[in-house]
Each structure stands twice: as structure tokens, then as C-alpha cells.
């Protein structure tokens, strides 16, 4: 459904619609200004090979491309893949059950104007480089990742040190291994909208930037929204998110973690459920650590971006976040969230999930 919707909305033919100010219709946040492969050529990925003609690696090796997929399944990476600038990567065009990459990092570092929709990024321990992440965009600019699924990141699941104008929206960030970190953005500004965060030790996200954090659902956290030792003062709009504890949560109050008085936060409509009783029955939780309280959002676009109450976000994010249709990894994450406190754990390796294909699940 998502594929046909985005095709109908014009994402695939983005090059023919340069008048749009958005990366694609419905795009939100600071990364929505990404132009992707507008005006470029089309490239169809025709096989699941690691390299060579028709491969994903070959597709992203040159700028100014709109990339679609004629195949479905996992692309098993033998080494990290580096993206070029000015790319649109539309995973929703892959035949059911969709497309993903596993066993390596995909990197947009030092690149700009990248649009990625409907992709699965599953690094895992099959990647021997523990210093890499599932998706890296260090020093990148103008990047939007929408309806993507990230899992088994070793360093961070999503890493974006020095990144400018970033959006992570309608995505699933689940089951990081090794350091067990979710996402890390420095510099910014950055937008996180409508995402599902599941079972991480910390960094959901680590927000060392001016940040919009709206309509996210965070489950089985040890530390969720974090600023830590930022060495800088940043502004945070934290609106209508739902924080739900799970078996791995040691302190429910760590939904906001290491946030000092040099941070400025507008917080409204956020809920926390700390009962672990199998029922969603939280209460408002809008005290953001020691942050200096703002009486109104710092960003002029934050209020208009809100789509749901926190409770509505749980329903809608569980139904529609991530690459669609949901595969085994995402289905496991969603099932654990729907237990509302009774299921879930922090995994040390993807194989610990017990899923097929060594824990990666089968596409």
C-alpha cells in the first residue's frame, strides 16, 4: 500500500516535480528540504548481489539518481556501502515482502540531499567492524529517512555526528546490539517524528542539536531522550510522545536522561507508562530533567507537525512505522511493545532473538 501511495504521490517521479518544496508529499522536519535525485537519471536495482551491474552498491555509486528495485529480499553486504549525494532511494518499489541490507553499514557521510524511503538496515554481528553503525550520516546535510526499519546497530543504530538538517520519521529503531544505542545526532537541527524505539540501553536519541521530538513511542528503555555532556546549549521541542517501560527498564524517570540546566526544553502532551501490567495506562510526564523550561516551542514548525495525542501515536506508530509490510524483525518489536511492559529484552546479538536466518529474519 505504501509503495502505491508514494508512487501516486509522485515520489518515484520526483525528478518531474521540481516545483515541490518538500522531499516528497507529507515529508516533515528539517530534512524535508532534501532534493534527492531530482533532475537525475533512473537506476533499477535488478539483483541482490553485493556489487556489480544492477546491484545496490553500483546504484548508489553515482550522484543524481532515482533508485528503484525490481527485486525483493536481503542484500548481504561484504563491506560498508557509501552513498553518493543527490540520491532518492525508494525501497517501496521492491516487490513484496520488500528490500533490505544486512551484515554491513550504509553510510551517507559527507554527502547531501538524500531521500530514503521503505528500506531495512540490519547491520548485526555478521559485520566484523564493531565501530560501524547500521546507518551513518556523519557530516551529512539535508537527509530524510522515512518509513525505514533499523535494527542490530553495533556502534549506534543511526549515527549522525556533524549532520545538518536531518529527519528520521515514521521509522522503527529496534534492538541495537554491542553498545545498544539508538541514534546520535550532533550539530543539527534534527527532527524525529512518529518513530518506534524498542529495547535500547540509551540514545533514543542522544540529542546534541536543536531538536524536534514529536509523536514518538519509546519502549523498554534504560535511558530514552538524552542530552548528556553536550558541551553546548540546545533547544528541544518534545511533544506528544509516549514512554513505556519494559522488563529492561531500571528507572522509569530515565525517559529524560542527563538533561542539565544549559538545555532549553518545551515539553507538552508527553505520557509515561511505568506499570508493566500489560495495559497502556500512563500519566503525563513533562518534567524534562533540569532543563530550562520554555513556554512555547523553539521551532515555528513544531506545533503544526503534531498529528496525534500520545495515546493516538501508540496506535498509529505501531500500525504504520517502519518499512512495510512489516517483516519478522519488526513484527517482533511490535509484539513486544503491545505487551505493554511484560515482554522485551536488550539483545547482545541478533541471534538472541531466536528469529530465522541467524536472527535477521527472512525476507
Automatic annotation (TrEMBL):
Keyword Signal among record annotations: yes
Sequence intervals crossing the membrane: none
SUPFAM superfamilies to which the protein is assigned, alphabetical: Pectin lyase-like (SSF51126)
Keyword check for Signal: yes
Top-rank taxon: Eukaryota
Gene Ontology MF annotations: lyase activity; metal ion binding
Gene3D superfamilies: Single-stranded right-handed beta-helix, Pectin lyase-like (2.160.20.10)
Signal peptide: 1-23
Annotated keywords: Glycoprotein, Lyase, Metal-binding, Signal
Protein name: Polysaccharide lyase family 1 protein
Lineage, uppermost ranks: Eukaryota, Fungi, Dikarya, Ascomycota, Pezizomycotina
